[in-house]
Amino acid sequence: MASKIDVDALIGNITAELKARIEAGSEEPIMIGIHTGGLWVAERLHKMLGLKQALGALNISFYRDDFSRMGMHPQVSPSKLPFSVDDKHIILVDDVLYTGRTIRAALNEIFDYGRPASVILVALVERSGRELPIEASIVGKHISLGSHEHIKLNGPDVLSLSIIEAL
Amino acid sequence: MRRTNIQLDKNNNLRHFLSVEGLNRQILTDILDTAESFSSIGSQQVKKVPLLRGKTIANLFFEASTRTRTTFELAAKRLSADVLNISISTSATVKGESLLDMLRNLESMHCDMFVVRHGESGAAHFIATHVAPHVSVINAGDGCHAHPTQAMLDMFTIRQHKGGFADLRVAIVGDIKHSRVARSQIHALTTLGVTEVRVIAPKTLVPREVQSLGVHVFHDMEQGLRDVDVVIMLRLQNERMKGAYLPSAHEYYQLYGLTTEKLGYAKPDAIVMHPGPINRGVEIDSLVADGPQSVILDQVTNGIAVRMAVMSMTLGRSATQGSVKREATKAGPKAGKEAQ
């Protein structure tokens, strides 16, 4: 089922929706992708929208709420926000919105860099199972999944979605 | 005495960090990679991440130190841990019994980590063998034995400037005999696979066993520095120079002090390092220490990220980590992130 989802088409739809929002606003926003899948999606959106500001990358590993349970994963790439976030309108991009905890961590991290004017959330896929009061502003596709199922974005050259049954 | 296994838990994760010796290339590379991800935190407006919130780290310094203690303290604070700084007078000899009593007391205050600097070789190892199972110990320098976080921040600085280790020739110059830094550096450099490690020093300051570590010994700067990519200067440790190792500091400078002229023997893009504190005009000329090839202040900056890496790797283990990791692999790495 998941393999039939056309990821590029979803990104095209999101681009159109974002474009309308950006044109309605007064200043150009800055875009930040969440490692790893969110960054892949953000790279495509950033290019299609032709945003002038460099793309930011966020690695939320150090802001996770389950560090004491999960421990450290050594190969994490650093966050790179090559701009000031102060008073900026930010488009935060992730691949899958699930529990909402990743976004909670990402917001905390962004605020450690400064105080943005606003943040909107773009998710390629939104699935059921929210544990925090967090919703996306723009969603590519809604998918219902059981708690034992996981959806995963494969990349980075060709993007595709796969659903994995966790035992 | 084998110091290897006590540093690793049953899942081969770093539990204590006591010595570079006995750790494989993968673990050393993990430390460098983790440190790299921490290096961006210094540029945040809020220079802090909540990773070790609620953990308590005690800095036990039985020997004076400014740079090491402050960078350990900063590293812990940037990880949001609470820090206790305890300086124990060097004049009061701390015997086994009272040291253990002190440990028990600190454990009763629910400390999660001891960072130990001690004048006796093996002190951190001794403490690590006696702490409670949840407590980690980091060696911040013990006698003439090891100073592993210094060695790793040096490796980080080398990788930052040279991109890797494979083709490098590295010369360590100075008082090898009394230097725990040199010992840890030699182990780290050989484990990470550099082409050649050289030590350059007068005969009196080269320990006999050093050749068994796979290094080449030189007594002359011109020969020793030829074709070298990295020059690591060591401090002439006046406080450890009790015997008649050298005729005079002046003569030492003439023969082994790093001047612009002597640096000219090394490769033109060679970098100059020094663990600090530097003795200007004793082992290094100010023109070199402050010159374009010097990365001495980068070493200080990198020390914070490397210490953050070691602290979070040792405290970031948990009893369930092995099984969680396996599950995460099954469901794909991304599933782990989503389900956090």
Please give a quick description of this structure.
With 167 residues, chain A is an alpha/beta fold.
Model description:
- The complex is a heterodimer of chains A (167) and B (340).
- Chain A contains four helices and seven strands; from the N terminus they run αβαβαβαββββ.
- Chain A is α/β, with parallel strands linked by helices.
- Chain A has one domain: Rossmann fold.
- With 340 residues, chain B is α/β, with parallel strands linked by helices.
- Chain B has two domains: 25-146 and 302-334, Rossmann fold; 148-298, Aspartate/ornithine carbamoyltransferase (Rossmann fold).
- Chain B has a five-stranded parallel β-sheet with strand order 7-6-5-8-9.
- In chain B, helix 2 packs across helix 11 (296-315) and helix 5 packs across helix 6.
- Classes of the chains: A alpha/beta (167), B alpha/beta (340).
- Chain A binds chain B through residues 36-37, 59-72, 74-80, 95-96, 98-99, 101-102, 105, 108-109, 111-114, 150, 152-153, 164, 166-167, and chain B through 13, 30-31, 33-34, 36-41, 44-46, 48-52, 312-313, 316-318, 320-321, 324-325, 327-328, 330-340.
The number of domains of chain A is 1
Q: Widest sheet of chain B: strand order?
A: 7-6-5-8-9
| Extended strand count of chain A | 7
The CATH level-2 architecture of chain A is identified as 3-Layer(aba) Sandwich
Biggest interface, chains and residues, is: A-B, 42 and 41 residues
Structural class, from helix and strand content of chain A? alpha/beta
Low-confidence stretches of chain A: none
